[in-house]
């Protein structure tokens, strides 16, 4: 029996599988949304496989949003965080590893220092241009995914896009979110099915929660 993957190996494999999924899924004119776009790793592949599509990126950190605008001039970059309400709120910045930054503190792999800034918060449903159909949605928001999905539910029900999302312990639980909540919204409310990035699934509610709590999986794909 093969040894279990380390966390770094699991993350690397899931990222590679996401890139393969994009190559298989996207058409030349597909629309992609990248939430928590960071430095644009997956935006690069969206543009590569859907060069005629309309692409939107959401990144609340000012320095990363500026880099995305410069590096991806044909992408609509929104310097906001996404949730299920509009307003302004505190955002926790992790200077030593910006990828761990989020609306709340989460578990960190080391003794990381944090800083606080103020960011705008919006609902995705309110920001999408009229008539735009979304084909692919990537969500990496360090535990805030349930609020984001609630604020995008109109689009999720209408378009039923393929969603690659992060959802794991040490992050989502800091928001009081249970995996059953995410499963119910994506399956019962949005009509999608949940798989892992090795293609196993669809995951039933109890199995999704079991694997979530095991900490062996935190990257998922939801698909109609």
Would you kindly provide a written description of the structure presented here, covering whatever features stand out?
This protein is of the alpha/beta class. The protein has one domain (7-84, 124-223): 3-Layer(aba) Sandwich (Rossmann fold), CATH 3.40.50.150. The strands form 2 sheets. The protein has a 7-stranded mixed β-sheet with strand order 3-2-1-7-8-10-9, with helices on both faces. Strands 4-6-5 form a 3-stranded mixed β-sheet. The chain has helices at 7-25, 41-49, 62-71, 124-127, 145-150, 153-159, 179-189, 205-214, and strands at residues 32-35, 55-58, 76-78, 81-82, 87-93, 115-122, 136-139, 162-166, 193-196, 219-223.
Q: What's the order of the H and E elements?
A: HEHEHEEEEHEHHEHEHE
Low-confidence stretches: none
Count of helix runs: 8
Task: Report the radius of gyration as a whole number of Å.
Answer: 16 Å
At the third CATH level, what is the topology name? Answer: Rossmann fold
Percent of residues in beta strands: 15-25%
Sheet with the most strands, sense and barrel status: 7 strands, mixed
CATH class (first level) name? Alpha Beta
So, CATH architecture? 3-Layer(aba) Sandwich
Number of DSSP-assigned strands: 10
Summarize the structure.
The chain has eight helices and ten strands. It is α/β, with parallel strands linked by helices.
Based on the model shown, name its key terms.
7-stranded mixed beta sheet, alpha/beta, globular, Rossmann fold, 3-stranded mixed beta sheet, 224 residues
